[in-house]
């Protein structure tokens, strides 16, 4: 599987003093990220929002990428179209794909208020974007003549929500998606706040026959269904009925378990085995993560490498948060104790099914059984997570490998001493320890 990076955090250009220059700033990092093993970057919303300094989750002009003087300025918070295209080209040159953040429901920054004749309510729904594309009025939003219900999903922050059943809206969303893939060169979509509109819309946008380099192209698609396991399951079922593509969802249930692992003393590690996470039930549909731009005060505070180690050795498509990698300095290149070492372990060894070998309140041990075909050779690994805060811990487990030597390839915790090599007996048994409040990954050698 691959590894993506969320290449921003909330107000990142303002905090980094890169307002209007974020695309250029990311481009400076692209070569190193490619060498580190990142396969894709998830970018923030590219379109002009209600203000040119907005982070972009309140879209105004979908087709203004920072080139029209409106909403207080020309560039977006992140830059302009030429800079975005240069970033995409450089990323592709370094083997990195790009995912666009799709905010296709709640709009903001309208130019006029209008009375909606269906309910007599006055709302900001008249949009006259300077790009000249997708002007809209009250009938493009809920309530609309094209739908009997007020809205298909939840409202967000009181913003007017687009009615995708209106042919004008429906057509504009297809044109926007096509523009991102075919003209700008994006490779996939992350859909924001999918609770706010019908799953059918994502299914159809995914199913559209995009063409890149003269060939049919199927984008990677992941949705932000910020909810519990049952809601995410239901949404995945609905959206995947509409398309042959394997639509994914961010694994919020796993993320909250991992926060408890890191931030709650004496958290029972057996909770990681109960099947509540998306990755445990439908790994091909899981995009796993540790933190993102929305977490704010709910961000993980302690021992965050424990969480990153978990998502990087299990199935699913792991996402690394820019703020953790750079600002929290968890990349730790050229060491066995950081994210860079986990990326290597993910690519080189983490293949095949995950099999839990041991789980008690303080110790979790898992093996990836390995996978090999004509293009991939991942021999598997042993992963140990230790919740005890004061000592190394491990236990003997029966692995799939008899008479096999294992070397530690990545580890971290409250003691970063080098773990010893291990060798299994004729039945595949050996003891595998990990540092206090930490992890260790062992690979067959």
Automatic annotation (TrEMBL):
Residue segments, region Disordered: 412-433
Enzyme class at the top of the EC tree: hydrolase
Keywords for the protein's UniProt record, in alphabetical order: Calcium, Carbohydrate metabolism, Glycosidase, Hydrolase, Metal-binding
Active-site positions on this chain: 192, 224
Molecular-function annotations in GO: alpha-amylase activity; calcium ion binding
InterPro entries to which the protein is assigned, alphabetical: A-amylase_thermo, Alpha_amylase, GH, GH13_cat_dom, Glyco_hydro_b
UniProt-annotated binding residues for Ca(2+) 3: 362
Biased composition regions of type Basic and acidic residues, renumbered to the chain: 412-425
Entry superkingdom: Bacteria
Residue intervals of the Glycosyl hydrolase family 13 catalytic domain: 2-346
Cofactor: Ca(2+)
GO biological process, one term: carbohydrate metabolic process
EC number(s) reported in the record: 3.2.1.1
Alphabetical list of Gene3D superfamilies matching this protein: Glycosidases (3.20.20.80), Golgi alpha-mannosidase II (2.60.40.1180)
Positions contributing to Ca(2+) 1 binding: 105
UniProt record similarity statement: Belongs to the glycosyl hydrolase 13 family.
Protein name: Alpha-amylase
Source organism (scientific name): Tunturiibacter gelidiferens
């Amino acid at each position: 599987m691959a590894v993506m990076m969320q290449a921003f955090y909330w107000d990142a250009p303002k905090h980094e003093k890169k307002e209007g220059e974020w695309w250029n700033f990311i481009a400076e990092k692209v070569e190193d990220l490619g060498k580190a093993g990142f396969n894709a970057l998830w970018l923030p919303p590219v379109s002009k929002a209600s203000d040119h300094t907005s982070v972009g989750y309140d879209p105004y002009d979908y087709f203004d990428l920072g080139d029209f003087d409106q909403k207080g300025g020309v560039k977006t918070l992140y830059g302009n179209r030429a800079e975005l295209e240069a970033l995409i080209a450089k990323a592709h040159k370094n083997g990195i794909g790009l995912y666009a953040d799709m905010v296709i429901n709640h709009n903001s920054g309208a130019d006029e208020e209008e009375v909606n004749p269906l309910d007599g309510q006055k709302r900001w729904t008249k949009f006259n974007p300077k790009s000249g594309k997708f002007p809209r009025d009250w009938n493009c939003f809920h309530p609309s003549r094209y739908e009997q219900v007020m809205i298909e999903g939840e409202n967000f922050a009181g913003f007017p929500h687009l009615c995708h059943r209106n042919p004008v809206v429906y057509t504009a969303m297809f044109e926007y998606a096509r523009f991102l893939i075919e003209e700008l060169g994006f490779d996939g979509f992350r859909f924001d706040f999918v609770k706010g509109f019908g799953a059918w819309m994502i299914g159809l946008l995914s199913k559209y026959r995009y063409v890149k380099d003269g060939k049919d192209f199927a984008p990677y698609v992941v949705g932000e269904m910020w909810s519990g396991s049952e809601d995410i399951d239901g949404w995945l079922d609905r959206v995947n009925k509409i398309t042959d593509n394997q639509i994914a969802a961010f694994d919020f249930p796993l993320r909250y378990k991992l926060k408890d692992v890191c931030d709650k003393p004496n958290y029972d590690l057996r909770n990681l085995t109960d099947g509540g996470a998306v990755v445990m039930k439908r790994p091909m549909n899981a995009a796993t993560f540790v933190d993102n731009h929305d977490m704010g005060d709910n961000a993980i505070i302690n021992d965050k490498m424990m969480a990153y180690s978990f998502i990087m050795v299990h199935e699913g498509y792991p996402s690394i948060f820019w703020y953790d990698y750079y600002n929290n300095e968890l990349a730790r290149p050229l060491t066995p104790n950081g994210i860079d070492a986990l990326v290597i372990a993910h690519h080189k060894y983490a293949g095949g099914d995950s099999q839990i070998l041991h789980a008690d309140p303080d110790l979790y041990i898992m093996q990836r059984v390995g996978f090999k075909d004509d293009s991939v050779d991942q021999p598997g690994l042993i992963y140990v997570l230790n919740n005890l805060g004061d000592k190394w811990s491990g236990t003997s487990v029966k692995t799939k490998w008899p008479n096999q030597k294992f070397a530690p390839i990545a580890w971290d915790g409250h003691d970063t001493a080098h773990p010893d090599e291990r060798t299994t007996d004729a039945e595949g048994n050996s003891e595998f320890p990990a540092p206090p409040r930490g992890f260790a990954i062992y690979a067959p050698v």
